[in-house]
């Protein structure tokens, strides 16, 4: 299915599925009228304006469902970096995303597009629930399994909004900017002196670091994306700088390793970018050397504190991993349910190894084996193959000088960084893994219409989009 031309812009069939029901002028008129009615109602009774504003928001979401994706990703970027949320915002945001996309499709009389990997993901989530029930740990693992199943529906909703090359670009933009905004708040808190390292005030530095590492590569790809306006490329270059600064300043060794391995993957796979990577590394080192005299005392104190804490953390993690792997050997097929390690730690150690090791073993892959057994691990490996395979494929298909080529080249390093950083944290029920899957599935929908057509000719040719 090819795209059609709307004005001066080519729209793919994926974009047309959720194109606005009403054009700009009628939408503006309805919005202005609704705001006027709300203002009159508020003059008499302030609460009376709320239903009008609620209906207006619902109309705008249904008419422009594409806004749901950046809104949802923004919540993910800020959930750990802003203190004082009145309620946990991630689940309401996921519900709004899923319900909004479902309603938008219903009013357009469209069925959702579902990739077979979505079904594998839902099977994985259901299996984690079964594993907890079978092992008698359902009270500990049930809430995590339900969160996983909820992630499955969120991924289906994101898939409707991120199909095709433009959809992939929008997903990468949303991911990049959401984490960059989070990094801004991390820096503000750090500069205020409230923290000694660049860590989110409402979450774990390692959890946030997984997404920072992935967002760094996506931001770098967007900053080099020739199909974007120069102003946008500058914005994403700043975002890449923010992500790199927070990654380094977090003193998270998992995040450091993720960035290093991601850069190595990019350096090995994409020869055309090697000089750029070497030059970027030289500039980063020069800036670090220039800043060192001003921050030397604070950095020295922080490193001393980090070294003291890190020694205990490493020992406790290794003890927890050994225990989880030993228990996996006792029940290898089904596992014990994710997030159910706490009683085992208490039973095997007079003092649990580190206060932080409470519900998880702080290693996504050990948790996967211990919590879901061979069956759950097999399902996860299928999903991992999709993430890596589709990202690698698109990076090779879209070469230099092709619209989307730079972003495509950033996908595999971002996915690899996510995998590497997850060695020291358990991310099975958190956003990073499944956003990597969203990137892989989106990459799988891109079907270039013309082989390696350079700019500006390619911008005048409609792309071909197909479902995987």
From TrEMBL:
<feature type="transmembrane region" description="Helical">
    <location>
        <begin position="234"/>
        <end position="249"/>
    </location>
</feature>
<feature type="transmembrane region" description="Helical">
    <location>
        <begin position="401"/>
        <end position="421"/>
    </location>
</feature>
<feature type="transmembrane region" description="Helical">
    <location>
        <begin position="277"/>
        <end position="295"/>
    </location>
</feature>
<keyword id="KW-0812">Transmembrane</keyword>
<dbReference type="InterPro" id="IPR007016">
    <property type="entry name" value="O-antigen_ligase-rel_domated"/>
</dbReference>
<feature type="transmembrane region" description="Helical">
    <location>
        <begin position="368"/>
        <end position="389"/>
    </location>
</feature>
<dbReference type="Pfam" id="PF04932">
    <property type="entry name" value="Wzy_C"/>
</dbReference>
<feature type="transmembrane region" description="Helical">
    <location>
        <begin position="114"/>
        <end position="132"/>
    </location>
</feature>
<feature type="transmembrane region" description="Helical">
    <location>
        <begin position="28"/>
        <end position="50"/>
    </location>
</feature>
<dbReference type="InterPro" id="IPR051533">
    <property type="entry name" value="WaaL-like"/>
</dbReference>
<feature type="transmembrane region" description="Helical">
    <location>
        <begin position="174"/>
        <end position="193"/>
    </location>
</feature>
<protein>
    <submittedName>
        <fullName>O-antigen ligase</fullName>
    </submittedName>
</protein>
<feature type="transmembrane region" description="Helical">
    <location>
        <begin position="144"/>
        <end position="162"/>
    </location>
</feature>
<keyword id="KW-1133">Transmembrane helix</keyword>
<keyword id="KW-0472">Membrane</keyword>
<feature type="domain" description="O-antigen ligase-related">
    <location>
        <begin position="239"/>
        <end position="381"/>
    </location>
</feature>
<feature type="transmembrane region" description="Helical">
    <location>
        <begin position="88"/>
        <end position="107"/>
    </location>
</feature>
<feature type="transmembrane region" description="Helical">
    <location>
        <begin position="205"/>
        <end position="222"/>
    </location>
</feature>
<dbReference type="GO" id="GO:0016874">
    <property type="term" value="F:ligase activity"/>
</dbReference>
<keyword id="KW-0436">Ligase</keyword>
<feature type="transmembrane region" description="Helical">
    <location>
        <begin position="57"/>
        <end position="82"/>
    </location>
</feature>
